[in-house]
Specification:
The chain contains 15 helices and 13 strands. It is of the alpha/beta class. A hairpin with a 2-residue loop joins strand 9 and strand 10. The longest helix has 20 residues.
């Protein structure tokens, strides 16, 4: 990509990074270390030095020296309760996140993946969510920020899928929209209660100060059973209609084998599914790398075919092992925004 196609703000950051690499390369490691410390404090504040050192897997002496610097710079407050980020620290962290993305070449990669995957926007979080819980929280925070950008009208409907990353999204919401209604994107998967779509929809609605509706129909029941439930339960029918009219959908992406096992499919069926080329799963759809649907679980709620009628579709997934799954689901079509991490993004780049 030539500089003539790079937005002015990104070009400024790129030149800044190039300058730092030439004149003071040793400072880059220090900047990254202080960025990691600020980001970690932000997610778990208030936090003590010993706990922070454990989170970062660094020696207490190293952490103490950097925290002292950040405190003297007015970026961190230290009290008997632990360390917290100051307002100035929050602003610095926002600027640093842009610097780190340019440093790692992620702003250019965002544009490249957006174009090649046919998405309106790709957001890449530095790091690897498979090995760093802070990066997982950052994925949730980024998704919450995207949600805030689109919840601009009254009486909007948000649909959300289940899973641990969606729980992180709900936890990261720090704004209100009292007129919003949050609904589960599909019926339950039968996993831990805290990771079920119903639970996450309720948690998200409570954070937003809005309303939520639940749908108590498990995945995997026959289509005849689903039809009978809907015919005899007006609540299910009402919520199902709301799901199809969602203004914003936020969903995760899973690996085909892992999701098939979690759904309780027998090994023979799982092997057949994988041998048919399925590598990714979203909303009960199992897709090949080229985006072809191999199998669809029966459930009340959204299918990939419905996404064209949804206002904005946001997919959130990270980790190198999910790269193929992300390519498969986005190739199937319907997503507008992908939020992922550096590890997955670079693996996706090699695949496509």
């Amino acid at each position: 990509m030539g500089t003539e196609n790079v937005p002015e703000g990104k070009l400024m950051w790129k030149k800044t990074v190039q300058l730092h690499r030439k004149i003071a390369p040793e400072f880059i490691a220090t900047i990254e270390e202080r960025y990691d410390i600020l980001r970690s404090i932000q997610h778990v504040e208030p936090v003590g030095r010993r706990a922070l050192a454990a989170i970062l897997d660094k020696g207490e002496r190293v952490v103490r020296a950097q925290v002292d610097f950040l405190k003297n710079a007015g970026l961190v407050d230290v009290s008997s309760m632990g360390m917290t980020i100051t307002r100035e620290g929050q602003l610095m962290l926002k600027d640093l996140s842009e610097y780190i993305k340019v440093l790692h070449g992620l702003t250019v990669l965002e544009d490249e993946l957006s174009e090649k995957l046919g998405l309106k926007q790709v957001i890449i979080i530095p790091g690897d969510s498979e090995t760093d819980t802070t990066v997982r929280r950052e994925l949730g925070r980024a998704a919450a920020n995207v949600l805030a950008q689109y919840l601009i009208k009254d009486d909007m409907i948000v649909a959300v899928s289940g899973g641990t990353i969606m729980a992180n999204v709900a936890e990261s919401i720090h704004f209100t929209q009292p007129t919003v209604t949050v609904v589960p994107a599909r019926g339950g998967l039968g996993e831990k209660v805290e990771n079920q779509a119903n639970t996450i929809a309720a948690a998200m609605a409570n954070k937003l100060g809005g309303k939520y509706r639940m749908i108590h129909v498990p995945e995997g029941v026959s289509e005849e059973m689903v039809g009978a439930m809907m015919a005899n339960n007006s609540n299910i029918l009402t919520v199902a209609d709301m799901i199809k009219r969602a203004d914003v959908l936020i969903h995760g992406i899973g690996q085909a084998r892992e999701m098939a096992v979690r759904r309780g499919f027998d090994e023979e069926f799982v092997s057949k599914l994988i041998s048919s080329g399925a590598v990714g799963e979203a909303l009960g759809h199992y897709c090949t790398l080229e985006g072809k649907n191999i199998y669809i679980t029966s459930s009340v709620g959204l299918h990939l075919d419905d996404l064209a009628d949804i206002g904005v579709v946001v997919a959130v997934a990270g980790g190198q092992k999910k790269a193929e799954a992300i390519v498969a689901v986005t190739s199937a079509g319907g997503e507008d925004v992908l939020i992922t991490d550096e590890s997955a993004a670079k693996a996706i780049q090699s695949i496509i």
